[in-house]
Amino acid sequence: MSALVARGLVRMATLDEVLHALRAHDCRVLVLKGGVSSCSDMLLRDCEDIDLLVAREDLDTALGVLGSLGYLPTMEVRTSSRGSFLRHSGETPFHCPGRAPIDLHWEFLPRWGSYRPDMDGVWDRARVVRVEGREIPTLSPEDALLHLSVHGGWSLWRRRLWVEDVADLLRAHPGLDGPAVEALARGTGTLRLLAVGLLLARTLEGAVPPRGLSPEVLGDGEAIALADGYASVLEHRAEGPTGPIQEVAQLLHQRERVIDRVRMISGLLGTPRRAEWARPLRPAPVRWMRRGLRALRHLAARGAMPAETAA
After folding, report:
1. DSSP readout, 294-307?
2. I want to staple 230 with a disulfide (CB 3.0 to 4.6 A). Which of 61, 139, 157, 194 is the partner?
């Protein structure tokens, strides 16, 4: 048995156990990424963790369920910082010996990512798919396409696997509603991110974009340039952003609305780093003095993140 299949078996067994436990506690949960939305072979997927989205009102229940299964948070958050952590982070990873890691989301991106879709709509459109003989709750094809594109852009498309996910989804759903996903992207200021994902899937994987998109979506010159740049990096013909400052500049460039860029810069300055949520509180004047350094710390943290560890 290959190591890839062995990891896949552990991941599927973990998913069965965790979904069963969450459902038993009436916790709304969706499985993100991982080939689920395209019903692809999850056993052969080259990834380690499982991404789960829970409804914000079910978060405490979900945390309790994971704890009862023996999962521990990768980072402990002190009680006094819990509110700030929940507002800003949007996700937190868990680990447990002998099981696949869990990345628990209650938002799709951290707050400073300036991506806030209508979550009621997301849950209303969610569906159940059969994968490997299992019924798995996941996003609608339209929400999944936008999520995969946003996730890939947020992670600067460091892995070819994320492009393959977009292509697999498009092939699995040839009737995907192009105007609907375009409307979702326009409403959240992520039209350029969607375009880059579709262009990469077409260029690198030969996938056909959904019908009914406005001509300007795939004709956006900025999106075309971004996609060409990512494709060159993924095919080892060019070097990507060479440092954290360049990475953040790229994140801003991917957003078409000025308001989202402003929110991202403001959020970068005001959001504590994860390590700060676990440290003792400093006196208020010191905390204010340190705000100006937070952006640099976030930049350093992004630059230190190995690409192969991302989900």
Report:
1. HHHHHHHHHHT--G
2. 157
The predicted-structure confidence for 122-170, as pLDDT tens digits, reads as follows 999 999 988 777 889 999 999 999 999 999 999 999 999 999 999 999 9
Rg (CA), the chain: 19
Q: What is the pLDDT of residues 25-74, one digit of tens each?
A: 999 999 997 666 555 566 556 677 899 999 999 999 999 999 999 999 88
Q: Are 234 and 163 in contact (CB under 8 A)?
A: yes
Q: How many CB atoms lie within 10 A of CB 214?
A: 12
Q: Is residue 114 part of a domain?
A: yes
**Residue the block writes with tokens 């860029």:** 261
- Look at residues 252, 178, 187, 164 and name the one whose alpha carbon lies nearest to residue 217: 178
Q: Give the list of residues 6+ apart from residue 70 with CB closer than 8 angstroms, or none.
A: 96, 97, 99
Distance CA 118, CA 98 (A): 36
Please tell me the total count of domains within the chain: 1
Report helix angle 244-253 to 258-270, nearest 10: 150
Residue 74, domain extent: 1-139
Q: Which residues pair with 127 in a beta bridge?
A: 138
Residue 118: C-alpha distances to residues 46, 184, 193 (Å): 31, 9, 17
Query: Considering the domain boundaries, does residue 281 fall inside one?
Result: no
pTM of the model: 0.86
Of residues 115, 199, 204, the one with CA closest to residue 159: 204
Q: Look-up: residue for tokens 């002998």?
A: 98
Residue 143 buriedness (CB in 10 A; 0-12 / 13-18 / 19+) = buried
Q: Residue 99: which CATH number?
A: 3.30.460.40
pLDDT at residue 307 in the model:
42
